[in-house]
Structures are given as structure tokens and as C-alpha cells.
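Materials and Methods. Structural model of DUF3710 domain-containing protein. The 285-residue sequence of DUF3710 domain-containing protein from Rhodococcus oryzae was retrieved and submitted for structure prediction as follows.
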Amino acid sequence: MFGRKKKAADEDLDQFEDLRDDVEAQAEADEFEVDEFDVDERPEGGPYDRDELDDPEGAAQSRLDLGSVQVPLPEGGQIQVEMAQDGTPQAVHLVTEHGRVTIAAYAAPKSPGQWREVAGDLAESLRADQAEISVQTGPWGRELHAVTPNADLRFIGVDGPRWMIRCVVAGPVGSAGLEAPLTAIAREILAGTVVNRGAEPYPVRTPLPVVLPQMLAEQLIAAQQQQMQAQQQAAQAQQTAEVQEAAVVEAAAAAEAAAAAAQDHTLPPEERPGGSGSAMQQLRR
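The predicted structure was written out as C-alpha cells:
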């Protein structure tokens, strides 16, 4: 009887060990598959979808309205507009004392997950440029931190309903760390951003159009005109200087020729360059 009990106990132990191995293997598989950077829902506080707001017009008035995105301006911040080759606004940067923050929205499918794919592509591209990449956890999940010899970069993305928003943080070395002031400013701006996706069909990953406010567009046009005038004035001044320089050179050459002619006229014939006196004088010698 004792032998049968021992045998039964051994069989139970073997089954327990097999079950334990299965559980551990499944746990390891689950741990491998779980993405600790994924966040299923946007944290309370934004970024917001315009259609979700009770007062979208009021929200737009308290933010810089760029058409597809409406962003709060940081205290003491300045606006820098980047233009495309065709003259349309390509990006709007919010410049602070610590660095600059750029927020842009892109078309996305209804199901979330585009930021994860975009982050992977960004990391691959940055590594190809010899940047040091680290994946960190922020309020919205996955963030990319890139360190280059001359600058720090941080990329923060959020998936929304048919849109994805990307925030790029750029500053001097050491300015875009996980707890850096510039990073805190960027997260605050992103949390207060409103996305106006619109009903237009766009291919996935297409940047949603940037539209400048009328006042900002007028200021930009005035600045461009002033720049063109300054360039034209500089070109005219350079042309005038070149003409004056040529005139001075010509006058100097004329004066030198005149001096040479005057000297040739005052010298005795035998001392004049290229001659030893008149023909009669030479016959008398």
C-alpha cells in the first residue's frame, strides 16, 4: 500500500511540475507580448477632438488656431513659421527659452495604433543618423528620446479618432530629458491642444493642413516683403559699389596714362622711352 501511495504521489508531483512549467511559459509569453508603453485611452485633459468639446468656438479663441490644430501658447513663447517651397505654411514652431515645440496632426485610421508604427519608423531613421535612441514612458505612453552631438529631440505621439498628433521637442543637448523643463512645457501644450480633423478624406499619415490666422498671415507677408526689399536694397548697394569701384579703377588708369604721357613730353628726345633722339641727331653722332 505504501508503494502505491508513493507512486500516486510521484505522478501528482509530475503533473504539478508540468502544469507549473506551462504556467511559467505562458507568463513569459504574455510578458513578451505586452507593450508597457501602450495606453488604450487618452488621459483626461487632452489632447481633445474638436467634436468632443461642448464649446469648440470658445476653445479656439483661447488658443492659436492653425486649422487642423489649435494649440495654447506657452508663457513668453514666440511663433516661428516654416514655409514650404510652394509658399504654403509647412509647420509652426512654438519657441521658448528652453527650446522649441512643434505640434502637427496627421490622418489616421479609425483603429488606434498608428503612433506605435510611426515611432518605430522614427527610431529606425534616427539610428541611421547615428542618434542615441531610448524609448521612455510618458503620460500618453511611448515617447522617443534622441540624443545627437548638437541637440536633444523628443517625440510624443497620441492616437485619436481618425487622427494622430505628434509633438516634436527640440533643444540644446540635455534639454529634452524625461523631467526637463522643456519636456514639461511640451506636455502641457499637448494636453491643451485641440485637433480639428474635419470630414475630408485623407490617406493615412497625411499631414492635416496648416492654416495661419489672418493676423499672423498678414504679419508674415509684411515680413517677407520687408525681407525682399532689404535684399533688393542690398543688391542695389552692391551693384552701386561695383560701379563705383570700376569707375575708380578706370580713373586711376586714366590718371596713370596721363602722367606717363606728360613725363614722355618733358624728357629730352634721347631720354624718351623707345627712342635716342631724332634721326638728324643720330646721324650727327
